[in-house]
Amino acid sequence: MLKILQHFWSFVLNPTDRKLNPYRTDTYSKVFFTMFFFKVVILAVILPLQYLIQYLDPIFTKKDDADENVLIYMISVVVLAPLVEEFAFRFFLKYKKFYGKLISRNTWRKNYRWIAYTSVFLYGFAHLSNFENANLLFYILGILIVSSNLVDGFVFTFIRVRLGFIYSWGLYGFWNLFTFSLLGTIILLKNPITKVNNPSISMEINVSQFRDTSELLFFVRESSDTLYNLNVRQYPLSQVVDSLYGKGTYQVYDDYVDIDMRSAKGYRKDSLLILLKKEFTIEPINK
Fold first, then answer.
1. pLDDT digits (tens, 9 = 90+) for 246-277
2. What's the Cα-to-Cα distance from 109 to each of 21, 89, 102, 140, rounded to whole Å?
3. pLDDT, tens only, 109-160
4. Domain boundaries in the chain?
5. d(Cα 283, Cα 268) in Å, to the nearest integer?
6. Rounded-to-integer distance, Cα 233 and Cα 216, Å
């Protein structure tokens, strides 16, 4: 494992498109799983950095229609997205004969470091489009925000070049499956996200990765700025916030939420917003 990581580090410093010639039948599998576990370690290191960035400049997302169906999401994230991105960012990294019409093999070899680095950085910064932010600080912190994607870019490029396209596609899909399972486990362990029961309000909030459209429910009983009942099932938090506080007033880091809130005497909307902000990223939009 150490030799594989040393070889990977040498590749990062001086990339070449030389394919690995295995001397044992299990060489490819050892490289594959070594790089997978390396990514797990890197994830553990980078997560605190991501929390710091979220504190300095909250990151916002919107739920996608693909998130409404587990099967569609799995096919998209584990199979299709890795395939498309591998083709777009790494398929070209092995020299082909027809490249000779544009660039000689010798010129390719001499400049391969910059070709590989360009691929990695384009891949990393393309992931900024996953977020809704558009402020100056977001772009200043961009390299930190996509730091994990930049590491991924080097890992997938290494696998693509040394083992082949199928292996880099497979590692990408396998990694997405792992992170999907990890996130799902964390959500199950954290639910209910919020549970409040006092004389003023009774409320429980749960989140989910996907939504079951057969359970959709949105019921509000309110009077001016006071809420008496809020029953939400399987709606994006962004839609809940837009409904209560006005569309375009707040940005959120989106989740599908179930909210069961009751208050006999009434509970002010601004007080509810304070409770929501304790568990979710919700910030006013500067106009």
1. 998 999 988 899 999 999 999 999 999 999 99
2. 19, 18, 14, 33
3. 999 999 999 999 999 999 988 777 767 777 787 888 889 999 999 999 999 9
4. 2-189, 194-284
5. 18
6. 5
